[in-house]
Write a structure and sequence with these properties.
Helix content: 10-25%
Order of helices and strands: EHEEEHEEEEHEEEHEEEE
Structural class: alpha/beta
Number of helices: 4
Strand order of the largest sheet: 5-6-7-4-8-11-10-9
Strand content: 35-45%
Largest sheet: 8 strands, mixed
Number of strands: 15
Amino acid sequence: MTSLASVTLEVADPTAAHRFYTTAFGLGDPLRLLASESPTTGFRGFTLSLVVSQPANVNALIDAAVAAGATTLKPAAKSLWGYGGVVQAPDGTIWQVASSSKKDTGPATREIDEIVLLLGVGDVAESKRFYVGRGFEVAKGFGSKYVEFDTGPGSVKLALYKRRGLAKVAGVSPEGTGSHRLGIGSDAGPFTDPDGFVWTTVSQTATA
């Protein structure tokens, strides 16, 4: 099984970004930070999702992120699939915070159950074939719209979504150019996928 060990965000100010992610989400590994001024405009083509157990935890994480300087893109609300909202960190990364539950079962915490990296791709079927060819096992999929891979317990989950659809979920325009400002550390690297996402070996990833 191919695992996804870490996600490296390329940011203008790693110190400020580290302070934000520690304060807002309590994230250390597997989130890493690297100083970069790579030109980028608009939607960077990916989101990161924090999956939690109940709506109160969604609210706690979103409130902490906004207090630490994030911008609300979609306020937390109920939907057909559960409860969630979207914020944009000061470094520009878009974060979804979501729960499949619509009811609270206990006091609010900021405990995170899963981290999911969603890549917005031009052709889900083509990208699926690419990743399967590099050892990724499909966990579930919905035709040409969405694919989720099994990256093993304790690993960041990886999923593919159509770029325009992912931008709509995030509440932003799908238009964007330049660097993704994202590096992915895995035992499957190094390679660059059809949409320009760069994968490295775990030893090449930056530290937080």
